[in-house]
Amino acid sequence: MSTSGAHFDKNTSQEFEQHMAAADAAHKKLAKGGYDRIAQHADAIKTYINSTIRTGETPTAEGLKKHIGDKAQKNDSIQRNHKHPRKCSRPMVELDAKQTH
After folding, report:
1. Sign (positive/negative) of CA torsion 8, 11, 16, 17?
2. DSSP state of 9
3. CB 41 within 8 Å of CB 68
4. 6 contacts: CB under 8 Å, gap ≥ 6
5. Looking at residue 91, what is its pLDDT?
6. pLDDT of residue 57
7. Taking the CB of residue 17, how many other CB atoms lie within 10 A of it?
8. Among 1, 59, 77, 79, which residue carries the largest CB count within 10 Å?
9. What is the Cα–Cα distance from 74 to 39, expressed in whole angstroms?
10. What is the pLDDT of residue 101?
């Protein structure tokens, strides 16, 4: 990809070219079916990137792994508590009783 038609200063243009080269290298390293595996995590990736924008953090692979792990742990906890109403908060139990399926 060329930046010749865009109006960037020299440093911005070099930074863009470096990012594109890194993206191309990552694309070439990705195993067959890699994009399908990444697509399974699209929502988590979007949520993680948005959270880093809000906090001013720089997104990292380690940060994404932690974000996905924390989300899975939270979901496990919710499911575990939902299966055992005695562990749930009272409003959740009341909500379950009001639902009709």
Report:
1. positive
2. -
3. yes
4. 13
5. 55
6. 93
7. 14
8. 59
9. 21
10. 47
Tell me which amino acid residue 96 is: D
> How is residue 65 written in tokens?
């792994």
Residue 89 — left, alpha, or beta (φ > 0 → left; ψ -120 to 50 → alpha)?
Answer: beta
The tokens of 90 are what?
């009272």
Cα of 17 vs its chain's centroid, Å = 25
* Residues of the chain with confidence (pLDDT) below 50: 101
Burial of 25 from C-beta contacts in 10 A (0-12 / 13-18 / 19+) = exposed
Of 27, 62, 67, 78, nearest to 43 (Cα)?
A: 67
What is d(CA 85, CA 88) in angstroms, rounded to the nearest whole number? 5
Instruction: Report the chain's C-alpha Rg in angstroms.
Output: 22
Supply 88's token pair. Answer: 């749930």
Question: What is the per-residue pLDDT for 17?
Answer: 93
In the block, tokens 């906890």 appear at: 77
